[in-house]
Amino acid sequence: MTFHFPSQFIWGSATAGHQVEGNNINTDFWAEEHAEGSPYKDKSGDTIDHYRLYKEDIALMASLGLKAYRFSIEWSRIEPEKGQYSYSEIEHYRNVLETCHEHGITPVVAMHHFSSPKWLMRLGGWASPEVPDLFAKYCEVVYKEIGHLIPYTLTMNEVNLPVMLREVFSNIGFIPPVGIERDAWTAPKWRESAAKLCGTTFDNYFTFHMISDENSIKILKSTHKKAREVIKRISPNTKVGFSMALSDIQSIPGGEELAEKKWQSYFGQFQDMITGDDFFGLQNYTRETYGPEGQVKPDEATELTQMGYVYCPEALGKVIRKVSQSVQIPIMITEHGVATVDDKRRVEFIRRSLEGVQSCLKDGIDLIGYLHWSTFDNFEWNSGYSMQFGLIEVDRTTQERKVKESGRLLGQIAQNSLVAR
């Protein structure tokens, strides 16, 4: 089929600071990587050295035909200690943003993508009632300096992921992201060591990925609201939203009620956060199927990704349609991708997924962009460097970039010049 998308449709790819920049030493994740008994397969180290190589990387994205780049600003770089702001780091991100604009790349900036400053853990982490004001102040400092360069921003990435980790990933037979134990939501012993590396105790140690109880979710919602208010006051032209990870929730006979409860847990309970936002960030990777006894494990014939997810390109279109029934603002697909060593499967994943996206557009759903996860093969949290999500391969011994066929494909689609075969 031939892909035809609106000329203003935002095409691009995405990364996260901790996963690509390298040496993000002031974060809770760095502490977790280096904790005694850490389950992380690798230490992030230099990662793909994007902090140093961003100019070449952005030029490469532009050469492929991509039109947008979603990246995160690292809170721990901007504010390495509470109340101490690094204007040299703000200048770094100013340079990143200006490089995007020079190459005709639209920046989409996440103000928080999982990693938090070590000092925040000393205050009780994301369970602390101080978080909304602290995060809003960080946003204020950044937007006063470089807000005019940021057309789209996500306050936070995947605000519902902690709930999904607790309710789903612990039950489907593989080790979930960010080192959460499968059989219990309580943190394993190595987190005591991580807390110590952050200068605090286990009782105070509460990372973003632990936000799943009523109190911490309330703090999360307040954090988004205060950050949005600050950003809009300082930079009214910046479009503000947040993103959610949403699987296509399906059911077999007898599982309908459970599937509905899961959707409410993953999406419905966060829906009030959207009021006042300019756009909604939708992120999808797979589908989940529920029966009367709970989540149905895939059979042996079902294709799985490296992450253990069901390979299901059609899930994206179905989730878009479901979200559009509840969301009255534009939807941007801020992450969508597949972990596989076989780039042919990624090419197929993109093509089939975008058929669903195009169908949604034809039916009048207000979609404004598609950002593929991820730009590069990079550090995938506790899975280390064992997962390949990227459109671009990286030899980390030389930091040489090698574009995959999937990267060329997405660039061609972005230029509205592709006939999919």
General description of the model:
InterPro entries: GH (IPR017853), Glyco_hydro_1 (IPR001360). GO terms for molecular function: hydrolase activity, acting on glycosyl bonds. Keywords: Glycosidase, Hydrolase. This is Glycoside hydrolase family 1 protein. Its EC number is 3.2.1.-. This protein is of the alpha/beta class. The chain has one domain: Glycosidases (TIM Barrel), CATH 3.20.20. The chain contains 14 helices and 14 strands. The strands form three sheets. The protein has a nine-stranded parallel β-sheet. Helix 13 (343-362) links the parallel strand 11 and strand 12 (367-373). The relative contact order is 0.16. Residues 172-185 have low confidence and may be disordered.
Produce a short descriptive summary.
Pfam families: Glyco_hydro_1 (PF00232). This protein is an alpha/beta fold and 421 residues long.
Please tag this protein with its features.
37% helix; nine-stranded parallel beta sheet; 421 residues; TIM Barrel; 14% strand
Query: Over the alpha carbons, how many angstroms does the gyration radius reach?
Result: 20 Å
CATH architecture: Alpha-Beta Barrel
Overall geometric form: globular
Low-confidence stretches: 172-185
Q: Structural class of the helices, strands and pairings?
A: alpha/beta
**So, the CATH homologous superfamily?**
Glycosidases
What is the topological layout?
Elements: E1 10-14, H1 17-20, H2 28-34, H3 50-64, E2 68-72, H4 75-78, H5 87-102, E3 106-110, H6 118-122, H7 131-146, E4 152-154, H8 161-167, H9 190-197, H10 214-234, E5 239-241, E6 243-245, E7 248-251, H11 256-266, E8 280-284, E9 287-291, E10 294-295, H12 315-324, E11 331-336, H13 343-362, E12 367-373, E13 392-395, E14 400-403, H14 405-414
Parallel strand pairs: 1-2, 1-12, 2-3, 3-4, 4-5, 6-8, 7-9, 8-11, 11-12
Antiparallel strand pairs: 9-10, 13-14
Helix pairs in contact: 2-9, 7-10, 12-13, 13-14
